[in-house]
């Protein structure tokens, strides 16, 4: 399955719209633009209509009499024969409560009324998307100049786009500035999504004030991360941007920005499973695992694998947490010979990471958060040693260096051309 549905390869789209005028408007457009879009009047037996249409994507009006839409959604989700059927819930408004109910019920996407034919095609084209983009892959400090031309020199920032309009950012290192410029150029700064911070060390949040979408009215952004002791995450951000350490405060944000504390455990955001895991690093640092449509990404940076004396089962718990992921992105700051001098710094070496990836049976490993003393040549050597060790272990995963600007399709494991294809 590819990460994006090609509309020409979709045999059928089924629209179950209760509003006659809206349905007729879409039907007239479908005749000219995509005859495979079926727009029957919803019948009493909705499941029969879905089965008869053999549609890949079903647009379902939540306003159908009674709770018919949600009853149908529950029935489809419980039927293994219909597991590949994608459901887009048509809501009467764009309020969060409507989205929450739809995603909680198992909808794959949400489309608020009124809508047009172009929106139906846009959602159908992106409904299976699960992509990651590396906007920054180094650690501690950015690296500029000729030694960072191959893999990039910005610090930690990962973009993740799911479906049509769910956008997640992990960490706000200097790579976030590159993402910001991309959004300004391609989307006029539009960004509705969530920013997850692993921990509040400088190289993971120092670029928050330079993310221009924060200052654009109309954007809705949730900013989340782990508290530190009795200090909430909101308090930590207020402290970083209090006018003393940085001249712009959070009061300058023009977007609708909300804040939340993240703790280890299971979370759901817009129908997407995001689990957090307490890592081995100074302070309270989280790793994240994202699962969607049977595929998974684990983002584990600033994590020390070699020294956990107070937590004897840390390695086994972490291996269980990332078990079988399609993509593991893990801190690989050091060569093996460097690690003994860096114990308790909260970072890992090549052998430690390869052994973890092998034990967890991951499918693809990206080496990440490189020491600022390591230029492109060192990263090439690090990758060579990592691949050699993986071969010695008989590991089956693919090993690569995270490369700034690259976008990867999590569904099929392929690298895409150019960063973040069509965000909205």
Please describe what this structure looks like.
The structure is a single chain. With 424 residues, this protein is α/β, with parallel strands linked by helices. Helix content is 27%, strand content 23%. It contains eleven helices and 20 strands. The strands form three sheets. An eight-stranded mixed β-sheet has the order 11-10-9-8-7-6-19-20. Strand 3, helix 3 and strand 4 form a beta-alpha-beta unit. The protein is globular, with a radius of gyration of 23 Å. The protein starts with 12 loop residues before the first strand and ends in an 8-residue tail after the last strand. The relative contact order is 0.11. The C terminus is likely disordered.
Reconstruct the topology from this structure.
Blueprint: E1 13-16, H1 20-33, E2 37-38, H2 46-53, E3 57-61, H3 68-78, E4 86-91, H4 96-105, E5 109-112, H5 117-126, E6 130-136, E7 157-162, E8 166-170, H6 175-187, E9 193-196, H7 202-205, E10 220-225, H8 233-240, E11 256-261, E12 265-269, E13 272-278, E14 286-292, E15 295-300, H9 314-321, E16 327-331, H10 350-359, E17 364-368, H11 376-393, E18 398-401, E19 407-409, E20 415-416
Parallel strand pairs: 1-2, 1-3, 3-4, 4-5, 8-9, 9-10, 10-11, 15-16, 16-17, 17-18
Antiparallel strand pairs: 6-7, 6-19, 7-8, 12-13, 13-14, 14-15, 19-20
Helix pairs in contact: 10-11
């Amino acid at each position: 399955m590819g990460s994006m549905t090609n509309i020409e390869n979709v045999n059928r789209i089924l629209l179950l719209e209760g509003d006659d005028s809206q349905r007729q408007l879409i039907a007239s457009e479908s005749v000219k633009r995509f005859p495979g879009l079926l727009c029957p009047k919803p019948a009493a037996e909705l499941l029969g209509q879905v089965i008869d249409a053999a549609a890949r994507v079903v647009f379902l009006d939540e306003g159908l009499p009674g709770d018919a839409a949600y009853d149908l959604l529950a029935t489809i989700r419980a039927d293994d024969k219909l597991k590949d059927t994608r459901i887009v819930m048509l809501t009467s408004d764009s309020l969060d409560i409507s989205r929450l109910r739809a995603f909680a019920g198992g909808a794959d996407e949400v489309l608020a009324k009124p809508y047009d034919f172009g929106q139906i095609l846009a959602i159908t084209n992106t409904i299976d998307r699960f992509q990651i983009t590396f906007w920054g892959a180094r650690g501690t400090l950015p690296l500029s100049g000729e030694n960072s031309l191959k893999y990039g020199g910005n610090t930690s920032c990962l973009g993740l786009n799911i479906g049509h309009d769910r956008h997640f950012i992990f960490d706000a290192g200097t790579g976030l500035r590159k993402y910001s410029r991309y959004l300004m150029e391609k989307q006029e700064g539009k960004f509705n999504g969530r920013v997850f911070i692993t921990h509040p060390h400088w190289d993971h949040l120092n670029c928050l004030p330079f993310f221009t979408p924060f200052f654009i009215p109309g954007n809705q952004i949730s900013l989340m991360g782990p508290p530190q002791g009795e200090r909430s995450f909101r308090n930590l951000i207020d402290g970083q941007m209090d006018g003393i350490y940085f001249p712009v405060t959070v009061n300058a944000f023009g977007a609708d920005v909300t804040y939340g504390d993240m703790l280890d455990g299971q979370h759901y955001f817009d129908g997407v499973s995001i689990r957090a895991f307490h890592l081995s690093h100074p302070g309270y640092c989280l790793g994240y695992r994202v699962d969607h449509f049977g595929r998974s990404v684990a983002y584990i940076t600033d994590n020390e694998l070699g020294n956990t004396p107070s937590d004897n089962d840390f390695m086994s718990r972490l291996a269980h947490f990332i078990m079988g992921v399609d993509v593991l992105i893990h801190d690989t700051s050091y060569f093996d010979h460097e690690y003994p001098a860096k114990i308790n710094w909260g970072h890992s070496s090549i052998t430690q990471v390869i052994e973890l990836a092998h034990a967890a049976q991951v499918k693809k490993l990206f080496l990440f958060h490189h020491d600022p003393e390591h230029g492109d040549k060192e990263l090439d050597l690090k990758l060579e040693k990592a691949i050699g060790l993986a071969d010695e272990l008989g590991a089956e995963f693919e090993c690569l260096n995270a490369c700034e600007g690259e976008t990867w399709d999590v569904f099929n494991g392929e690298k895409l051309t150019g960063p973040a294809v069509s965000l909205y």
